[in-house]
């Protein structure tokens, strides 16, 4: 009888230790995944800021090199200002919306520059286009990494039994950084102004 009691006690203690270990392991996994999401978002933000920094130079170069439509330039400038105004505390959906508007404005600007062949001879403009293309590639890469981390976190939150720990600690789902298809492809501009370069890609 005494042996049976000790066996039961040992089983209960071991089971409790296993549950406690699992609980803290699950909680720590949420912390780790949330940190990955935050870190990858910071990289997205760095690349978006890089694009924001390019816009004034692009607008100034176009304005100085051609009798360009001022309305289009103002639209780009306003879209950039709107994106910058959101600040660090804005939610991901609002930032994505603002960045899509900026992409659309840049797309419009770049499409219209096709009517001004004299811009092709301006080295500063060509350099800006190359840098903008590189920046768009960086944004796309950082966005993919961020969304992959979001997917990992959200999958963990929705999976049993880890979802029980998430519910107890009110672990929120992370937001995907969604970019509409037209905006995603809108800002490849080197081929628009230099068709020969596009054929080499």
TrEMBL record:
InterPro entries: LemA-like_dom_sf (IPR023353), MamQ_LemA (IPR007156). It is found in: Membrane. Residues 95-145 form a coiled coil. Keywords: Coiled coil, Membrane, Transmembrane, Transmembrane helix. The keyword Transmembrane applies. The chain crosses the membrane at residues 6-24. It holds the Pfam family LemA. Belongs to the LemA family. This is LemA family protein. It comes from Gordonia aichiensis NBRC 108223.
């Amino acid at each position: 009888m005494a042996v049976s009691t000790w066996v039961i006690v040992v089983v209960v203690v071991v089971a409790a230790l296993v549950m406690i270990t699992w609980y803290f392991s699950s909680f720590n996994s949420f912390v780790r995944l949330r940190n990955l999401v935050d870190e990858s978002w910071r990289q997205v933000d760095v690349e978006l800021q890089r694009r924001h920094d390019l816009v004034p130079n692009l607008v100034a170069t176009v304005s100085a090199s051609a009798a360009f439509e001022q309305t289009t330039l103002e639209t780009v400038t306003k879209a950039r200002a709107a994106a910058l105004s959101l600040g660090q505390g804005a939610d991901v959906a609002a930032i994505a919306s603002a960045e899509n508007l900026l992409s659309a404005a840049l797309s419009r600007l770049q499409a219209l520059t096709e009517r001004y062949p004299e811009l092709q001879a301006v080295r500063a403009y060509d350099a800006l286009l190359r840098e903008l293309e590189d920046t768009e590639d960086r944004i796309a890469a950082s966005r993919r990494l961020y969304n992959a981390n979001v997917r990992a976190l959200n999958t963990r939150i929705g999976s049993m039994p880890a979802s029980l720990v998430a519910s107890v600690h009110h672990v929120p789902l992370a937001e995907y950084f969604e970019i509409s298809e037209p905006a995603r492809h809108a800002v490849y501009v080197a081929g628009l102004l230099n068709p020969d370069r596009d054929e080499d890609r």
